[in-house]
Amino acid sequence: MTHSSQLLTGPIHKALLSLAIPIVISQLLQSAYQLTDAFWVGRLGPAEVAAVSISMPVTFLVIAIGAGLAMAGATLAAQYMGAGRREEVDKVSAQTLLMVLVMSTILGTCGYWLSPHFLTLLKVEPEVYSNALSFMHVSFIGVIFVFTFNMFQALMRGIGEVRIPLLIVLGTVMLNLVLDPLFIFGYGIMPGLGVTGAALATLVTQAIAALIGIGILLKGRHGIHVRLRYFIPDYSYIRRAFFLGIPGSVDLSARALGQIIMSFLVASFGTVTIASYGVGNNILMFVTIPALGLGMAISTLVGQNLGAGQIERASQAAFTGATWGFVALTLVGTLCFFTAPQIIAFFVPEQPNVIATGAEFVQVMALTWGGMAVQVCITGAFRASGNMINAMVLSLLSQWMFLFPIAFILSKHTALGKTGIWWAFAATNILIGIVSICWLARGSWKHTRLTSQKQEVLQVTEETLRESEDQYYP
């Protein structure tokens, strides 16, 4: 039995595990890029750390704008693979690669030239400006490689092949561990490049990963074989991918903007609160990785089964995955609840005020992490079915209707003060978990198939938008 057929006929729990474990490991390894940069740049000085900190949200926002195209390609590839239409899988992959190359070139060029204006808008201090500008310039040059490899990973996940991307990420992360200190501090006749070196090390490793990915797609030995004739622009496909991808881009962009807005609110409570929020948020991001991996696994499993017409199996996979996510992150949250001071102290030793406040943040929200996992897992099912609007609405609800308004009201208009921000995270996790599971149970998402020759994604978008309005504005 092939791996793809196991996804369509084997036990659901086994299929989820076979997909989720390599994806989670890959996600953890990719987080090592940021951890490595933070470790070495932290030894340069506070101005250099600030330069990277200022640059990252801006570059992430630009990357988020184009990320929806990779989601669209992965969704279509999964459903065509489930339907047994391999030639369509190959064509979808080539067209997605073509669009990603064009989009990343445009966004990278715009980001490069607009970098000084971004920094001026953010009112960056003079001692930070030059390093931040250099870091952003190199990062925007590398956007094409980041886009390309992310697209390759998404397509491989779509057809159920998760081991190859994992091996590539492992190799490039190991290379980055060597290149980061070499480029930052120099060695022998090679001069140290400081902050620019950190960005350059990432660019080199991402370029290698992207080129390997393209080579694999061109050779066709791992489930997808793109041929030159498939790169001729197919405007009907581009239109479909556009309407599928735009909600995903809005989703990620809204998250990036939400983080920036929350940072302004937190900053109004002083340095200790900022530091506590930063450490607590880093822990939250790390804890979210298993849920994200499970959500991606659910997306592949649901997409292939919907493509094969196995609707109930797809629904069972979604509910099983959401249950797993809830149980797993609730257990992790319980562990973190009892060890919060020790976890915070690991990141900020000998800072009693930050340890106390950060531990309070973690303890308030930790027991509700299961609700957050439910949202992530169900979002994966919605994206796999082609209902990108559903996934986008859940994200917008979480960030803009729950988290920020609740945080603002509790922190500024009650006696809770900064603690109100922590309780906003807990309330949001509970509310978005309930909304997600109710929407999944409604079941209308199961009847969207993108592999029908007559179905247009524009119709899907309109239908799910109407569903969203009915769900929240009856």
From TrEMBL:
GO-annotated molecular function: antiporter activity; xenobiotic transmembrane transporter activity
Keyword Metal-binding found: no
Keyword vocabulary terms for this entry: Cell membrane, Membrane, Transmembrane, Transmembrane helix, Transport
Spans traversing the lipid bilayer: 12-29, 49-76, 97-114, 134-152, 164-189, 195-218, 256-277, 283-303, 324-349, 361-382, 389-409, 421-441
Places the protein is found: Cell inner membrane
Topology with respect to the bilayer: Multi-pass membrane protein
Cellular component annotations (GO), alphabetically ordered: plasma membrane
InterPro entries: MATE_fam, MdtK-like, Membrane_Transporter-Flippase
Keyword Transit peptide: no
NCBIfam families for this protein: matE (TIGR00797)
PANTHER family, per database record: MULTIDRUG RESISTANCE PROTEIN NORM-RELATED, MULTIDRUG RESISTANCE PROTEIN YPNP-RELATED
Protein name stated in the entry: MATE family efflux transporter
Organism: Alteromonas alba
